Sequence to fold (636 residues):
Amino acid sequence: MDSLHVTFADGRAVDVRPGIRVVELAASAGAKNLVAAKIDGQLVDLNRVLDKDCTVEWVAPESKDGLEVLRHSTAHLMAQAVQSLFPGTQVTIGPTIDDGFYYDFKSDHVFTPEDLESIEKRMQELAKANLKVTREELPRAEAIELFGKMGEAYKVEIIEGIAADTVSLYRQGDWVDLCRGPHVPSTSAIKAFKLTSIAGAYWRGDSRNPQLQRIYGTGWANKKDLEDYLKRIEEAKLRDHRRLGPALDLFSLHPIAPGSPFFHPKGTIIYNILIQYMRDLYQRYGYSEVVTPLIYKTDLWKTSGHYEAFHDDMFLMNVHDGEYGVKPMNCPGHCYLFGSRKYSYRDLPIRFADFSRLHRFEPSGVLSGLTRVRSFAQDDAHIYCTPEQLDGELEQFVAMTKEVYKVFGFDRIEVTLQTRPEKFLGRIEFWDAAEAGLRRCLERSGFTVEVLPGEGAFYGPKIGFDFRDVLERSWTLATVQIDCAMPERFGLKYVTSDGSEAVPMMLHRAVLGSIERFIAILLEHCAGAFPLWLAPVQLRVLTVTDDHKEYAGKVVEQLKADGWRVEFDGRNEKLGFKIREAQLAKVPYAVVIGEKEVAAATVAPRRRGGENVAPLPVLEFANNLRAEVAQEMGQA
RNA sequence: GCUGGCGUAGCUCAACGGUAGAGCAGCUGAUUUGUAAUCAGCAGGUUGUAGGUUCAAGUCCUAUCGCCAGCUCCA
Fold:
């Protein structure tokens, strides 16, 4: 065979000599500005040699694959820079992540923010030096010897874990790293990057292992994309609930109670509306709300299994006659409630809803605004049902979740199925049945699902509905979990149709998740501009001059009597100033009252954002508001 | 909890080891104003806290609390 048949992505085909390198093929095909190629669907270096008929697809730096390659190569460039500046530093792993990359190092030197600047500078020099990036393959044993000689203990450990006979190395200049690749053909292809932060990270992600130093960076195809990204991050910070919440006077945090938010009057309005919204849904979905104790003797959690698994995360206290604990979750209490009387299969399902405040002693390092707190409430409920009712209950939960998220406009949901962890309670056959039930439910739900093996709770598998905050961090809001342990541990029974006793199925579920976390995500989702039905202040009545205060006062009373949350701004200020303040406070409507409105007995509403509504009588305005709320809540 | 960074007025930020300052917010007064900032004046601080070094500490050191980024964990 003296020629190879190459087919391009656009359908064109050429015959080329065997042994041609991809980069030469690109040149002859007129393809420019490439970082890699896909041969038969597999991402490869441009220096790869062609030895058989194949299809070829070019990978531009801006493409998803291109950025992946580029960022990976940038991570290598960073590692090279770090090792040249700080001899003795060992490299470990350096993968790409969303928008960038990181590399974990073991070094006696402690990296500082100033170091990032010098590392960046060295990276730029190395990029400019246009070092050829070359791939070579080495037998496993030789690679182990090579990295062993270099003092790269972590790399040796990685290679020892690789099953293949040969491993691939990448060289650029005098620097070499173990890597699967592919990489850019030369360091000069790396044009736009920035090192962003330093953090600690455990080797292989295990806190029992040595802690490494991780340097994060972001990398892009060109300077403009980099600038755009940095700008996007800056803008996202403006939507951060930790900034917006206090600025809008919704909540605050004080060192006197770390991780335990104070909700101000305006934040409390939102808090209570969310709970009321769930209560209304509960009415429709057949839940029964209960109120249960906050503090229990620790025997409760010894029975449930939480004491052993959760001990360090609980607020415990010794009081007079023994050890008590503040509840970190509602389930054990609900089990007592369920067990306190005899239920028949005819009573099931029983759905106990509970908005109790929960306390968990989270490690100080994980506390963050409202997303990770030590004191919170959930729209929590536990469902006790027969095995036959399981699928129906799961289906109902998914329907409820979909209904809720539609109202809030949450569409970027990531659904995960989290299965049995290494440490678990209960019988394996329960777990298998439970996981099968969750899988059936998800298959019918239409969601794209990611399975996270071993990530389930210690008492059962779960489905998580995750959302991202403005900084792209993922948080679980809704969750449904099947309990494979607690009903049995608490000796729960119900009477079946044949008069015998059986252990009920138990589900844990929340739609909003923690109210605190939900408010955080909601706040960032709408950038503080809450929809009318949720806005803590829905209307602000503004006077043009003092002459209009009397009529405006009557309008305020009328609107309040009609159930609206109204503020009155009758200050001696210019209208423009008051409008500006209402706008900055993100009040949905500024209701302007001047001479014309007094004369015509109307109001002149201005929507948040600037749109003016034609003046109309107060009651008519209120009717329009009612219609707007109904539409927001999907009841129109 | 671990690693690193940061704590100055209500907020955003200044201040070489040498008298803690500005803008906004607040208060007082003037101005009576039509859809995103009227003007003037006043007040505001044990520089997170506790030690230490120094003639002198917001600045240097130690401890501690909190916050931020990430890791481990998690609604």
About this structure: Chain A has four domains: 4-59, 64-236, 247-525, 539-632.
